[in-house]
Amino acid sequence: MVPCILCHSLQTKLLLYRQEVAYYLCNSCGSVYKDPAGFLDREAEKERYLLHENDVNDHDYQYFVNPIVEEVVKHFPEKSTGLDFGAGTGPVIAKLLSEKGYTISLYDPFFHPNTSVLHKTYDFIVCCEVIEHFHNPEKEFELLHKMLEPEGKLFCMTELLPKEKSFATWYYKDDPTHVLFYSEENLKWIQEHFGFKKVEIEGRLVVFSK
Predict the structure, then answer these.
(1) How many Cα atoms are found within 13 Å in the side-chain-facing hemisphere of 82?
(2) DSSP letters for 129-152
(3) Three-state DSSP class for 33?
(4) I need a surface site. Which of 133, 169, 175, 183 has the fewest CB within 10 A?
(5) What is the pLDDT of residues 130-163, one digit of tens each?
(6) What does the alpha-carbon distance between residue 210 and residue 174 come to, in Å, rounded to a whole number?
(7) CA atoms within 13 A on the CB side of 180
(8) Do the Cβ atoms of 61 and 32 come closer than 8 Å?
């Protein structure tokens, strides 16, 4: 059996095997995850991300990320400091928040690999369509919690596991760079395990409060 990539439990079961890729369900934390044997290597993963057409001036793209932007504005005043973690090729959230007077740093292991920003703390961190890519989620969430100031917030966007249809027909799993999938159960596990005070879920928007 393949241990859970989030909580490392062996209380897992095979959920789906398709095109030589296995997906497992963890009965301990509720995660659904891809067998690490099916992860893309670093070069193939980067090539996949380069296919994304993330134009920071695209109005549809700006509309898509707007829920995070609105939440930041609602909870933090201008000049607050933030980190766009996993900013990708088109850091649109950083652009929109910078225009509103926020100070935003960028980090992405492929496109903004300045690790010095990981040794600072921030009022808030944004992870838009990022957490489903975490190969080592325990390490990543531990880091994210550490980088937040007291009373800070981690704003994430991801699509949660479907409740009304089967995992096998869910389009979101078909992106080869998506390796970990979230539900209320494993988001609550993350909140408790890493010491966040609470987690709030509204559609694709997930907010952890320190």
Answers:
(1) 34
(2) T-GGG-SSHHHHHHHHHHHEEEEE
(3) strand
(4) 169
(5) 999 999 999 999 999 999 999 999 999 999 999 8
(6) 32
(7) 26
(8) no
